[in-house]
């Protein structure tokens, strides 16, 4: 049975319902793919949910699908197919590498795979787009709405007057479905215009033309003469030429280089907002879009793009045609720019100890500037600023003299170009020491500074980006709303703008330092992967257009006032009972530099094996050193950023900051093993250097404090020794107990030995007795045998006699036959009984023999038992 | 009285509520998964006790038991510390007394040296070190003596005869009563030679008998000496002649825990020599076997690819990488392995990477822990929710596929989820333990050093349970602090005492401390492995002179802040 059980196997359990039977989702849990295909004929829109019953993601998505189904079941058929069960058709025909897989069909078109987040709202949004891939644009105002969206829009113009199915319309419709296949985030929207007058707004005249709207660049019309008018081509063309002013980032959860690829393009502004794709309006998103449009608007006069002001103003009867004008005139010349491009310059100081420094705002004023006529020539390029800086430094002596709290401006001619002159406005600000902590309570105590060109506030002019004081920030809407226009082209630190849905990706915000406690999940950060820094928009400010603009501007200026954000671990609380002090970004300065103690600081990370195994050594050290003059501290650098100068590239790293010479920190040498004696030697070596001044009263006091410490240390030692002694006593007692136990055991063994010996003797006696009885029995047996022999002989004689008698009787028989009949039978009976006697006696003899044998074996057993004992 | 009775009852009821309602929140309900893992443990554990004890393993389809690796009630020994991690102190105490009475190593059984070490010696050692925490009354010499330690030592001594070979590399099998059988095969797998240092060094440090650590080190050095010119080791070697019998080099079956123990030994013993061995191997592994974050099998002398497969056992590698700070690479490889899980609901023993499917005869999944183990380590390092998702998938899969009335059955074939009549002891020792720890971030095992115990032993005062537990390859945690409690404790204490005296008198003898720089003869561990391998001439040896200590991790790069939810970053180089 044992070997058979080894081969026992059991087939997988039979599939059961995955969705409840009351669910609006049809659950083909036996994988009936053929039936699923049949079902497709019944409905215009079908959603297939291919699942595996064991798959966690399928289980998690089930609820979401049910939710969508309950909302759309009247228009969409929801079919779930178990594509795992190996007897099912689905498993035999389809080969999936992951589950669940969601496929959508729009009539015969499909499958369109949904690859977005497994969240009901996103799935529903996508299903709705598959249901209506084309948006019908009936009026000018709807067109304006459609175009003002930040997501690229493609508009097709088809006149339905001529025929019920104008040529190309079906192709255009299919291309909209195609785009959903290619671009699952659905960022390109497709619209259709049927009214000629509406079409004219975007200068579409011929039915069958397709238009791609762009905000910052020229909008395009599909080049029918160059490319064939096919669904794939239209889709490809739109994807290639679309404008991505601001992109959604939606990591799908699997291994991906999305962030790597995007962030390596340059500094990025990540904006986290809670987003409901089903919502009708997105006010915050509109506001962000506005900022983005302004930021990228490099080539247009300021007044030319009022279209966004019409947002939501759909009933506006007087449709401002300048919107479309602006687009149409894109390739034409632009008005000569009147605005300067500017840069903040902090002047080098003569003395590094100077407590103030001069900040100048240097602007290039182009009176007779060149006419930019191509899309991407920035108005104010890097070369110009370089030239301006050169000229500026030639004149710098003028500015070094300035020590003023008011702004002073002066103009000077360009060194290179006769057509431009520069303006420099300077003022002196107090120099502040770098603070480690980028929190609201920083030491950044600069008085509020605002620069304005030519020293006068003029809102029609471009005001210069200003350094803001975070303590008393009041957004100045007027100035900032104009300020940002075209900034992306005027700076050499152009930002890429990204949106993330904080309902799904808040974890990234937390990683960048977003507060965990905030209920409003809005957050903005600029990440510069190359420089390995990131800046954070103060979370106390609400995320609105102007704050975002200021954030961008502050990043863009040459000497940016933004400070690298240092993420710290909010979960760490100060514990009095912890012998090793846990330091965070926020407490670093205070614990290490401001405290009047020697500080030994361990840089560690929880995950690093080499750090965790040192815990006990640092705990011992902290318990050993006098707490009133030594701090043993540690900082988890994975969760706490530190200023560059305090960073370390290996973990663990041990630094010692001696009291009174905190700036002369020393590092524990790496080639020594980290153990208690070595750490003590290290501390001893470095803390002794300072004590060479002559002894004063203070020194005596110190000495006494030290000796006090020594005394308490010794007391602790004594305590320890006492407990050690008691431990030894315990061990001693334990040993004693064990010893006496062992002795008792020995005694017991001795006793056992004695009794065994006794037993042995009695056994021997018994054995002798047995021997005697054996002999006796043997004797008896022999005698018995003799007797038996005798009996045998006797019976033999009897037999002979019997035979003789028979012969005798036979001879006489003839005569006495009838007379002697009775007598004869009696005689024969007699001989029979004699026979029986003999057989009985042989049987008893055999039994006797057996018994003797038994006694023999018992005896041998006894004797062998004695031997082992 | 009624009032007092009702009070705690209401409290319990209120406590239970959040677990049920928490599911509504986005993301994973960690607490409810933790409870499901706990229920999983008891379902298997109770059925083992009921139907299989005192056999080694439970047979879940036939509801009986069988002996597999010996006859030591293996599942019970292996599950012992899991009981404590789940917080079940009373059952831990009961099992400790059962084992003390019931387990006998004087048996005529041929046992695997490797398996007996990692499961029996490792399990008993960790139970010994945790017994005080579990409320077991320990004797005065603890942790340097104790009944479980004596049992571990006895079991380990039974293995020592296997190490009596010309090379110092052990035989694979030993008879517990008679030693190595005559005619025993001299071919042992690499892991069977290099997976002793964690248990044996711990034994030596606790008992004071250096023989265990010595044989383990000798075996490690023999492997190091026999690596190929391109720095790789094969799969099987003849321990008499030191000839490689199987020359496939990789990180999986047959080799895996050798690399693991080089790293864990280096951490546990602060041993630079072991670490530099590992780093050399790591370089060769990256050079020859790594393709697109997968690790393949190559010929150990030529470096040519011999098998483009991923093995279930290889999934420990990301966890190991995270221990030494290579978190980025670890995460990238982990995400590759995770896709295989998503395809089958488990990891097949072999997975053909180019074909994207299982390999013939290797389609099983015996509920191995390796991928979950890596997820636990990586979650410590990154807190990435993706890792919790793997935990979720594992719980769902194991419950749906392999749960039967009598326990959890090995999946014989991942293609159709047919079950086999076996529940390996590592299911309770490792798989369930790592799953539970993944879902229990506040478990004492994750202690970051903010808690600790002070124990007074006859050797002096000792700080214990300060975190940094090293898991042996069967997931039995060893407290690294315990290694400093016994043997050399007294010497170190005297030295510290001298230094403290000096410390308090420094003001008087100012010049004295200046002379006393940290002494250079510090520890024999500090020397380089070059001494051990000086015969390998002509190899470039400059790399080890790098500016940083070998016993350290690199701090994480800036982009690691954003490397969550599947996002990976490429090096800038």
TrEMBL record, chain A:
Keywords: Coiled coil. It comes from the Eukaryota. This is TXD11 protein. It comes from Cnemophilus loriae. The gene is Txndc11. Pfam families: Thioredoxin, TXNDC11_2nd. PANTHER family: THIOREDOXIN DOMAIN-CONTAINING PROTEIN 11. Residues 565-688 form the Thioredoxin domain. The keyword Coiled coil applies. SUPFAM superfamilies: Thioredoxin-like (SSF52833). Residues 711-801 form a coiled coil.
Automatic annotation (TrEMBL), chain B:
Belongs to the glycosyl hydrolase 47 family. It comes from Cnemophilus loriae. SUPFAM superfamilies: Seven-hairpin glycosidases. The active site is at residues 115, 256, 349, 370. One of its GO terms (biological process) is carbohydrate metabolic process. Its EC number is 3.2.1.-. Residues 1-24 form the signal peptide. Involved in the endoplasmic reticulum-associated degradation (ERAD) pathway that targets misfolded glycoproteins for degradation in an N-glycan-dependent manner. May initiate ERAD by promoting the first mannose trimming step of ERAD substrates, from Man9GlcNAc2 to Man8GlcNAc2. Seems to recognize and bind to exposed hydrophobic regions in target proteins. Its cofactor is Ca(2+). It comes from the Eukaryota. This is alpha-1,2-Mannosidase. Residues 516-541 have a biased composition (Basic and acidic residues). It holds the Pfam family Glyco_hydro_47. One of its GO terms (cellular component) is membrane. The keyword Disulfide bond does not apply. Ca(2+) binds at residue 473. It is found in: Endoplasmic reticulum. Keywords: Calcium, Endoplasmic reticulum, Glycoprotein, Glycosidase, Hydrolase, Metal-binding, Signal, Unfolded protein response. Residues 514-554 are annotated as: Disordered. InterPro entries: 6hp_glycosidase-like_sf, EDEM1/2/3, Glyco_hydro_47, Seven-hairpin_glycosidases. One of its GO terms (molecular function) is calcium ion binding.
């Amino acid at each position: 049975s044992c070997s058979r059980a080894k081969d026992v196997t059991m087939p997988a359990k039979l599939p059961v319902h995955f969705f409840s039977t009351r669910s609006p989702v049809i659950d083909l849990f036996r994988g009936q793919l053929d039936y699923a295909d049949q079902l497709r004929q019944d409905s215009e829109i079908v959603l297939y949910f291919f699942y595996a019953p064991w798959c966690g993601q399928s289980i998690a998505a089930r609820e979401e699908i049910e939710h969508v189904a309950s909302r759309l079941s009247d228009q969409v058929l929801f079919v779930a197919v178990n594509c795992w069960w190996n007897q099912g058709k689905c498993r035999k025909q389809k080969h999936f590498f992951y589950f669940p897989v969601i496929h959508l069909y729009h009539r015969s078109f499909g499958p369109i795979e949904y690859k977005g987040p497994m969240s009901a709202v996103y799935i529903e949004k996508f299903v709705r787009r598959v249901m209506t891939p084309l948006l019908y644009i009936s009026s000018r105002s709807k067109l304006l709405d459609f175009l003002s969206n930040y997501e690229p829009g493609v508009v097709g113009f088809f006149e339905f007057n001529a025929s019920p199915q104008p040529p190309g319309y079906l192709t255009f419709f299919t291309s909209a479905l195609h785009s959903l296949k290619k671009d699952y985030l659905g960022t390109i929207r497709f619209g259709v215009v049927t009214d000629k007058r509406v079409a004219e707004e975007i200068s579409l005249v011929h039915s069958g033309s397709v238009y791609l709207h762009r905000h910052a660049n020229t909008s395009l019309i599909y080049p029918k003469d160059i490319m064939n008018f096919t669904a794939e081509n239209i889709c490809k063309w739109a994807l290639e030429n679309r404008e991505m002013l601001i992109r959604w980032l939606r990591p799908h959860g699997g291994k991906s280089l999305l962030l790597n690829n995007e962030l390596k393009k340059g500094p990025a502004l990540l904006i986290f907002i809670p987003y409901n794709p089903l919502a009708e309006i997105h006010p915050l998103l509109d506001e962000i879009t506005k900022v983005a449009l302004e930021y990228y608007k490099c080539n247009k006069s300021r007044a030319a793009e009022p279209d966004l002001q019409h947002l939501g103003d759909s009933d506006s009867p007087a449709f401002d045609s300048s919107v479309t004008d602006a687009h149409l005139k894109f390739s034409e010349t632009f008005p000569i720019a009147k605005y300067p491009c500017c840069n903040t310059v902090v002047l080098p100081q003569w003395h590094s100890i100077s407590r103030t420094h001069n900040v100048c705002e240097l602007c290039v004023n182009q009176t007779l500037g060149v006419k930019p006529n191509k899309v991407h020539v920035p108005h104010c390029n890097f070369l110009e600023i370089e030239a301006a800086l050169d000229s500026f430094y030639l004149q710098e002596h003028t500015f070094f003299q300035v020590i003023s709290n008011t702004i002073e401006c002066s103009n000077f001619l360009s060194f290179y170009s006769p057509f431009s002159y520069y303006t420099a406005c300077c003022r002196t600000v107090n120099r502040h020491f770098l603070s480690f902590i980028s929190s609201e309570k920083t030491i950044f105590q600069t008085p509020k500074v605002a620069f304005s060109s030519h020293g006068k506030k003029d809102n029609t002019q471009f005001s210069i980006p200003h350094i803001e004081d975070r303590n008393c920030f009041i957004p100045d809407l007027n100035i900032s709303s104009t300020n940002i226009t075209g900034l992306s082209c005027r700076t050499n630190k152009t930002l890429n703008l990204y949106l993330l849905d904080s309902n799904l990706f808040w974890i990234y915000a937390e990683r960048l330092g977003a507060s965990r406690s905030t209920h409003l999940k809005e957050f903005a950060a600029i990440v510069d992967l190359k420089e390995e820094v990131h800046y954070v928009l103060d979370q106390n400010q609400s995320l609105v257009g102007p704050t975002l603009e200021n954030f961008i501007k502050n990043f863009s200026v040459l000497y940016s006032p933004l400070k690298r954000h240092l993420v710290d671990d909010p979960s760490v609380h100060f514990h009095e009972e912890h012998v090793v002090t846990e330091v965070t970004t926020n407490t670093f300065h205070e614990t290490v530099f401001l405290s009047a103690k020697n500080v030994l600081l361990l840089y560690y990370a929880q995950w690093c094996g080499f750090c965790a195994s040192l815990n006990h050594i640092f705990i011992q050290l902290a318990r050993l050193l006098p707490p009133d003059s030594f701090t043993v501290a540690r900082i988890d650098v994975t969760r706490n950023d530190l200023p560059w100068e305090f960073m370390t590239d290996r973990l663990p790293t041990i630094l010692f900051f001696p009291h009174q010479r905190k700036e002369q920190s020393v590092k524990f040498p790496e080639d020594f093993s980290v153990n208690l004696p070595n750490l003590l030697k290290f501390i001893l070596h470095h803390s002794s250097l300072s004590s060479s001044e002559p002894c004063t009263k203070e020194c005596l006091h110190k000495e006494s404090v030290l000796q006090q410490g020594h005394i308490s240390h010794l007391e602790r030692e004594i305590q320890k020794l006492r407990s050690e002694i008691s431990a030894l006593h315990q061990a001693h007692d334990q040993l004693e107990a064990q010893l006496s136990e062992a002795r008792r055991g020995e005694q017991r063994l001795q006793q056992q030995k004695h009794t065994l010996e006794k037993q042995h003797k009695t056994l021997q006696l018994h054995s002798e007795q047995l021997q005697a009885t054996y002999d006796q029995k043997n004797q008896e047996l022999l005698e018995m045998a003799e007797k038996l022999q005798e009996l045998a002989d006797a019976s033999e004689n009897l037999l002979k006699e019997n035979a003789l008698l028979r012969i005798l009787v036979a001879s006489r028989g003839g005569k006495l036959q009838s007379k002697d009949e009775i007598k004869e039978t009696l005689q024969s009976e007699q001989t029979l009984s004699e026979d029986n006697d003999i057989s009985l006696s042989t049987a008893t003899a055999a039994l006797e023999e057996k018994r003797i044998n038994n006694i023999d074996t018992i005896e041998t057993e006894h004797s062998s038992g004695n031997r082992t004992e | 009285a009624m009032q007092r009775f009702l009070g705690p009852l209401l409290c319990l009821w209120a406590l239970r509520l959040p677990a049920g309602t928490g599911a509504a929140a986005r993301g994973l309900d960690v607490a409810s998964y933790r409870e499901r893992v706990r229920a999983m443990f008891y379902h298997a554990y109770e059925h083992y006790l009921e139907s299989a004890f005192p056999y080694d393993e439970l047979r879940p389809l036939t509801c009986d038991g069988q002996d597999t690796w010996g006859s030591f009630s293996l599942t019970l020994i292996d599950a012992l510390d899991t009981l404590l991690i789940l917080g079940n102190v009373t059952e831990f105490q009961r099992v400790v007394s059962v084992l003390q009475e019931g387990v006998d190593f004087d048996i005529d059984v041929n046992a695997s040296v490797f398996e007996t070490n990692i499961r029996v010696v490792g399990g008993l050692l960790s139970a010994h070190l945790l017994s005080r925490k579990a409320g077991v009354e320990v004797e005065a010499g603890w942790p340097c003596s104790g009944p479980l330690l004596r049992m571990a030592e006895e079991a380990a001594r039974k293995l020592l005869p296997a190490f009596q070979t010309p090379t110092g590399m052990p035989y694979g099998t030993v008879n517990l009563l008679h030693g190595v059988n005559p005619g025993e095969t001299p071919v042992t797998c690499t892991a069977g030679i290099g997976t002793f240092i964690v248990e044996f060094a711990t034994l030596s440090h606790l008992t004071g008998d250096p023989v265990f650590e010595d044989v383990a080190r000798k075996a490690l050095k023999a492997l190091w000496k026999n690596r190929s010119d391109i720095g790789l080791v094969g799969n099987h070697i003849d321990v008499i002649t030191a000839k490689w019998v199987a020359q496939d080099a990789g990180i999986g079956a047959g080799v895996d825990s050798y690399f693991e123990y080089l790293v864990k030994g280096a951490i546990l013993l602060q041993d630079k020599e072991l670490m530099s061995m590992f780093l050399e191997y790591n370089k060769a592994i990256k050079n020859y076997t790594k393709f697109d974050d997968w690790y393949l099998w190559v010929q150990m002398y030529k470096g040519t690819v011999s098998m483009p497969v991923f093995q279930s056992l290889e999934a420990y590698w990301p966890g190991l990488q995270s221990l030494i700070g290579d978190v980025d690479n670890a995460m990238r490889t982990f995400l590759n392995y995770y896709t295989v899980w998503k395809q089958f609901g488990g990891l097949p023993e072999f997975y053909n990477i180019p074909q994207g499917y299982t390999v013939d005869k290797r389609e099983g999944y015996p509920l191995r822990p390796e991928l979950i183990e890596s997820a636990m380590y990586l979650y410590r390092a990154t807190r990435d929710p993706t890792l919790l998702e793997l935990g979720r998938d594992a719980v769902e899969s194991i419950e749906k596929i392999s749960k039967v009335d009598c326990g959890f059955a090995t999946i014989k074939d991942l293609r159709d989820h047919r079950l086999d009549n076996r529940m390996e002891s590592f299911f309770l020792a490792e798989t369930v333990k790592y799953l539970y720890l993944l879902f229990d971030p506040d478990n004492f095992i994750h202690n970051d050093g903010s808690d600790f115990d002070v124990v007074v032993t006859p050797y002096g005062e000792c700080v214990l349970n300060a975190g940094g537990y090293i898991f042996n390859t069967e997931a039995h945690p060893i407290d690294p602090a315990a290694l400093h409690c016994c043997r050399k404790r007294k010497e170190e204490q005297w030295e510290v005492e001298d230094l403290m005296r000096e410390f308090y008198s420094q003001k008087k003898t100012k010049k004295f401390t200046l002379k006393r720089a940290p002494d250079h003869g510090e520890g024999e561990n500090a020397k380089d492995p070059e001494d051990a391998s000086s015969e390998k001439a002509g190899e470039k040896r400059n790399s080890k002179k790098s500016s940083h200590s070998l016993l350290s991790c690199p701090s994480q790069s800036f982009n690691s802040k954003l490397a969550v939810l599947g996002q990976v970053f490429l090096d800038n180089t």
